[in-house]
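Reading a protein record of the kind used here takes only a little practice. The integers have meaning only within a learned vocabulary of local backbone shapes. With that in mind, consider the following protein and its fold in token form:
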Amino acid sequence: MKVVTVTGYKPMELGIFKADDRNIQYVKQTIKRRLISLIEEGLEWILLSGQMGVEMWTGEILLELQEEYDIKFAFIPPFLHQERRWPEPQQHQYHRLFERANFAQVLHNKAYEGPHQFQRKDQWLIEKSDGCIILYDEETGGSPKYFVHKAKAYQQSHSYEIVYITPFDIQETMEEMRMENPAYWEN
């Protein structure tokens, strides 16, 4: 895969309500490990729509990875001012990623009009990528289910890879990170 869309849950869907929640580090590390693996296999571009949560955290990870790897990312929000009603720290994060992306452009050059803009955004991201990485648990559902549904439908007639990151993957990363800490072995 040369181009991958990354998406998944919003923070509140993961039970994360603070920007400094320690669980974010486990989610980010899990995504980072998956991205590095794909970059080393030839991944060149990541597509993000700038949603809070997984997509914004992935953008932060990509800024770090660009110091070490030749990876680019596109920031394609579905409509103008997507971040307008978000808490101020997330708005700053959004603007920073929009400015630092290798390519940034709003898909619909209008303010929010309706759910059709999100549907069109999902379809566009799928059609412009070779596959996706999605933090999703089929048993839990949540907002990523719409993207998963479209990706699976697209997969029926196209070569399209869906790579899942599950809560089990995050739990595994959490345990590995704990074991990497020397204090873990002292007790």
User: Anything to note?
Assistant: The mean pLDDT is 94. Helices lie at 23-40, 54-65, 88-100, 116-127, 145-155, 167-180. Residues 23-40 form the longest helix (18 residues).
